[in-house]
Amino acid sequence: MRGREMAHPGRHHDRVVEVVGRAIVTGRYREGESVSPERLAEEFGVSRPVIREAFRALQGKGLLVARPKVGTRVSDPRTWNYLDPQVITWRLESDRRTEQVDELYSVRLAVEPVAARMAALRSKPADVAQLTHAIDTMYAALDQRDLHTFVSADVEFHVALLDLSGSKMFECLSSVIATAVRTRETLVFPVVEAMRRGLALHRQLVQDIMTGAPELETTSRRLIVDAHEEANRALGVWGSGTDTQVPSEL
Length: 250
Known about the structure:
By secondary structure, the protein is mainly alpha-helical. It folds into two domains: 3-79, Arc Repressor Mutant, subunit A (Orthogonal Bundle); 85-234, GntR ligand-binding domain-like (Four Helix Bundle (Hemerythrin (Met), subunit A), Up-down Bundle). It is built from twelve helices and two strands, in the order H-H-H-H-E-E-H-H-H-H-H-H-H-H. The protein has helices spanning 3-7, 9-25, 37-44, 48-60, 85-92, 97-122, 125-143, 147-165, 168-171, 174-186, 192-211, 216-234, and strands at 64-67, 71-74. Strand 1 (64-67) and strand 2 (71-74) form a beta hairpin. The radius of gyration is 21 Å and the shape is elongated.
């Protein structure tokens, strides 16, 4: 192994996975196209073992398939792992962006209202404190125009909600839900009033969980639908409302 690879083997592997994976998902590499390890080793200036390790990672995502006497080729998109956070991120950078956003919010609508109901049945006040802390952090970040902290706290809220449901299968979807929530930072031009409305719904959802309110799932769905509409506006279907858009960090 080359000297710099010995010092940072993971860094080179990750770079190959990132570049080649994005190229596949965004369509630069087509289904069935041969992917030459020799050529990539030369292009990236890395050894064959690094390329092989990267190929194994991409095969695990369903993006590549290796067959004897055929070599390594781009897989049929039907075999891709669409729940893989990197695959989701790469699709958000492709011409399937709108489709990916819609699918992410469909997953959220299917999972989060049920998770909220399950959380209401089993959570104690100390458990719900995680959600309240995340909301408080979001309010403070909004006042400071700190989008990164706001989104990180939003991710914390929704991942904690899945954890509080007690469902191991829902917990396995945490990375998908987190990626969906992070689209606010990568796709959405933030609007302060919309974000304040969203925070009010977050607070209402926590209250509904604590009291077991019948409208709990409706509150959760409203929160997700509003976020989806905000994402769609960011993708080009801007509304004509009077919300104040905030440039820079937030």
